[in-house]
Amino acid sequence: MLCSLNRDNQSALQYVKNYKPHAEGQQVRILLHGPVGAGKSSFINSVQSVLHGRMYTLALADNTSDCSFTKKYTTYKIQKGGPDSFYPFVFNDIMGLDRNGVPVDDVRLALQGHVKDGYRFNPVSKMSNDDPYFNQCPAANDIVHVLVCVVPADTVHPIKDEMVKKIREIREEASSLGIPQMAILTKIDMTCPEIQGNLKKVYLSRHVKKKMEQFSADVGIPMNCIFPVENYHNQIDLDSDVNSLILSALRDIIKYGDDFINLKKSNDRLICFNVA
Length: 276
Ligand SMILES: Nc1nc2c(ncn2[C@@H]2O[C@H](COP(=O)(O)OP(=O)(O)O)[C@@H](O)[C@H]2O)c(=O)[nH]1
Ligand SMILES: [Mg+2]
Prior knowledge:
CATH superfamily: P-loop containing nucleotide triphosphate hydrolases
Distance between the termini: 55 Å
Bound molecules: guanosine-5'-diphosphate, magnesium ion
Shape: globular
Structural class: alpha/beta
Radius of gyration: 18 Å
Number of strands: 6
Order of helices and strands: HEHEEHEHEHEH
Low-confidence stretches: 1-5, 65-69
Strand order of the largest sheet: 2-3-1-4-5-6
Helix content: 25-40%
CATH topology: Rossmann fold
Number of domains: 1
Mean pLDDT: 87
CATH architecture: 3-Layer(aba) Sandwich
Number of helices: 6
């Protein structure tokens, strides 16, 4: 399957496969947030499928309106080689933008690494710091290193004003912590007939460009940090064009996360230096 990847795919795939954080044991934590049904779980599944060269359903994409799958905070790791070996990046998936979504206060706690795996978010009350799932002392691997907003490009699910407001609030939280932010525009295959079956046309599509510009203007994420993708959702085999967009988004997500880890390390060193 991998031999059908074009040269760009190969270099993005190599980057992802070879990526190693500077510090031993460090991992990049990627937090995906967005409305229910946007394609967060499908993106995690798609990443795993591309990296393994066959279809995977690790994060259980859900095509019903019941969002219970994603209410529990879960870290998704992707196996590399053997059963105990994993890629040095992990995903968390949070349903943060709907009326019944995770409170913004809890997203802030997740960004800071205070939310332990298994915590069940409650849309009407925020996490208390005496909760057994509250992580009192987050380690370097617990904090979020890159925040990715996942939104659908199709017109069936337009992004409402209240959603834009919440995305902005979450972005402000992340900005105050210095966490880099990006966006993934999913379901581009549903936007216009020219893209359906020919993803190469994505950057020529006026519809997708307009969507990206609109989203960028609404929430303030620059155009070069917004990645259009089609997730694997009903395909039986991998496809080089689908892989290409997923890999290009993933490579940049890892790069931004890695930059943040390095910046944080050098800032921490400076603080120690000043204290000493
Ligand atoms: N056509 C299309 N469907 C998608 C895409 N991404 C996800 N889906 C479908 O959208 C539905 C919701 O996806 P899911 O990943 O569960 O969304 P989540 O709630 O954000 O985790 C599922 O039926 C997926 O198969 C995409 O890029 N294109
Ligand atoms: Mg999900």
